[in-house]
């Protein structure tokens, strides 16, 4: 069942397959949310429509799983992983083992597992992490 929301200037239909927002009709999913907003002049009832079911895209770029080195496998526990997941799991390891420098949280103090990944360094800056794992993503 579709609902209608008026904004004073335009109306939007939501809860249906089509969503009309400020005169633009797009195919959207069944869910929509009404937000009060000020756009130019004051009026409420702006509708933001949720997109229809997402198409299944093939992972590419930094989200594409890749084979990884044995050193990184010891830390993450998988034989293939994407760069984004690898960085996320490394940060989980850092947080779980309290490896950030207490005086400067931007510095990571490496334990034995991290030293294997970060070329034997005792400490690294958090911005260096992504670059230092590059050789481990084959």
UniProtKB/TrEMBL annotation:
It holds the Pfam family SWIB. Residues 61-138 form the DM2 domain. This is DM2 domain-containing protein.
């Amino acid at each position: 069942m579709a609902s209608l929301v008026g904004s004073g200037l335009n109306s939007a239909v939501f809860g249906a397959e089509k969503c009309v927002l400020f005169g633009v009709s797009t195919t959207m999913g069944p869910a929509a949310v009404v937000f009060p907003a000020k756009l130019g002049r004051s009026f409420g009832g702006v509708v933001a429509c949720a997109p229809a079911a997402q198409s299944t895209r093939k992972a590419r770029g930094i989200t594409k799983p890749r084979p990884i080195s044995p050193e990184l496998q010891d830390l993450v526990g998988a034989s293939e992983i994407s760069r984004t997941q690898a960085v996320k799991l490394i940060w989980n390891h850092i947080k779980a083992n309290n490896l950030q420098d207490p005086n400067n949280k931007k510095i990571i103090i490496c334990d034995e597992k991290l030293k294997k990944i970060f070329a034997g360094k005792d400490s690294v800056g958090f911005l260096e992490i992504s670059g230092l794992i590059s050789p481990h993503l084959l």
